[in-house]
Amino acid sequence: YKEFQKLGTKSGSDRNKAMVEQLHHFGVITSKKVAEVMGTVDRACFVPLGTPPYVDSPMQIGYNVTISAPHMHAMCLQLLEENLKPGMRALDVGSGTGYLTACFALMVGPEGRAVGVEHIPELVNSSIQNIQNSAAASFLEQGSLLVHVGDGRLGWPEDAPYDAIHVGAAAKEIPRLLIDQLKPGGRLVIPVGNIFQDLQVVDKNLDGSLSIRSETSVRYVPLTSREAQLRGY
Ligand code: SAH
């Protein structure tokens, strides 16, 4: 390790921090808290072996899906920041590698709860291993971070209502059950559409009414059935 340092080669976690610094430099990351969390959770723990962890683009993770690009993770964390304060509850639908669920766990802290739901059991198992290798391991151990196998279109009613819900796959329309599982004052971030999708931000107001806006155009894999996904849609 010392030899590498002499040669000026940076360790993985230094390169993760450099990636965060780049995203900050280009104005993608504006939140200090999000920079801190993304700087702490090393993406290298979450991508398959042989996949470049710090390149700002989505990467294949098997099962016809991808880990989202770092700039999308940053954007979603920032859109949800006010709903990821210590002690709050967050649901990550289509948790995939577990990267964002791990970030949620750091944001809400040990008194909060970060719940991932993913419909591919193999991805749930590998995401748990990824988290165990990461800075979020203690949250898994202590029970404030959980990842379940399930159809995320149904949400995860056991831990509802949530302050924050993130959906990492594109829905044809906003699933009613996710709205139901949102707290008044809570926020849902979800890509909606087929090929052309909008990242929608849904706020449940204190009187229960909804305010919906489109943040930007995005391209996510579909939120669908396990069968359709494994057959290639
Ligand atoms: N945000 C994650 C994964 C993004 S890919 C990451 O960055 O690692 C979208 C994920 O949603 C995939 O893992 C896919 O298997 C999952 N998914 C798609 N439809 C689903 C559904 N109905 N229920 C649960 N998970 C679903």
UniProtKB/TrEMBL annotation:
Q: What class of enzyme is it?
A: transferase
Q: Which domain of life is it from?
A: Eukaryota
GO cellular component entries:
cytoplasm
List, alphabetically, the PROSITE patterns matched.
PCMT (PS01279)
Report which reactions are catalysed by this protein: [protein]-L-isoaspartate + S-adenosyl-L-methionine = [protein]-L-isoaspartate alpha-methyl ester + S-adenosyl-L-homocysteine
Which terms under GO biological process does the entry name? methylation; protein repair
Establish whether keyword RNA-binding is in the entry: no
Question: Keywords for this entry?
Answer: Methyltransferase, S-adenosyl-L-methionine, Transferase
Q: Which InterPro entries match?
A: PCMT, SAM-dependent_MTases_sf
| Listed Gene3D superfamilies | Vaccinia Virus protein VP39
EC numbers listed for it are 2.1.1.77
The record's similarity note reads: Belongs to the methyltransferase superfamily. L-isoaspartyl/D-aspartyl protein methyltransferase family.
The record's section on NCBIfam families has: pimt
What protein name does the entry list?
Answer: Protein-L-isoaspartate O-methyltransferase
High-level lineage:
Eukaryota, Viridiplantae, Streptophyta, Embryophyta, Tracheophyta
